[in-house]
Amino acid sequence: MLSILFYLFATVAIFSAFYVTKARSPVNSALCLVTTFICFAVLYIMLDAPFMAAIQIMVYAGAIMVLIIFVIMLLNLGTAIKKRYTHALVWGGGVSVLMLFITNVFIRRGEMSGKVGDVTTQTIHNYGHTELIGKAMFTEFLLPFEIASILLLVAIVGAVILSKREV
Do 67 and 8 fall within a single domain? Predict the structure, then answer.
């Protein structure tokens, strides 16, 4: 039953991610992206990672998508005429197939490092996902966390500047 559920949500995630690129309206594309995020949250729950599923729903399907919809509405991207060029699709498909092939070669020829981390299944059940993620985020990975927050702040300021109309 679990494998059927996995394949169902994986298929829905793949098709909705495909329609993100194929939708003619940016709003429909954003709604397909929300569907993809929700499918990912279900897959996180199936992997016994409820914290990641909750963050996926709250942060990505909630806050980030509201921000994207707000920018789409503010910039009025829905009225722009889109021209489709088939040569870009062919080049993009070719590069994607090449990257898939290269990744497959590296995975099949690569060797496992043999390193075992400090966090085991028993540790997760004793402390919980949230405490372990918070401890790692604010001790070992504090600098990347702060860099990501600064990048998000710069993106928001850039969106406001781009949306500002000249008077």
Answer: yes
pLDDT in tens, the chain (167 residues): 888 999 999 999 999 999 988 888 888 888 899 999 999 999 999 988 888 888 889 888 888 888 787 777 777 655 555 566 667 778 888 888 898 888 888 877 776 656 667 777 777 778 877 888 888 888 989 999 899 999 989 988 887 887 776 54
Token digits for 80?
Answer: 């722009």
Across 137-160, b (16+ Cβ under 10 Å) vs e yields: eeeeeeeeeeeeeeeeeeeeeebe
- Whether residues 3 and 61 fall in one domain: yes
Are residues 70 and 13 both part of a single domain?
A: yes
Domain residue limits at 157: 119-167
What are the DSSP E strand ranges found in the chain? none
pTM for the complete prediction? Answer: 0.59
Give the CA count within 13 Å in the CB-facing half-sphere of 138.
5
How far is residue 99's CA from residue 97's CA, in Å, rounded to a whole number?
A: 5
Domain end among 84, 99, 129: 84
Q: Is residue 112 part of a domain?
A: no
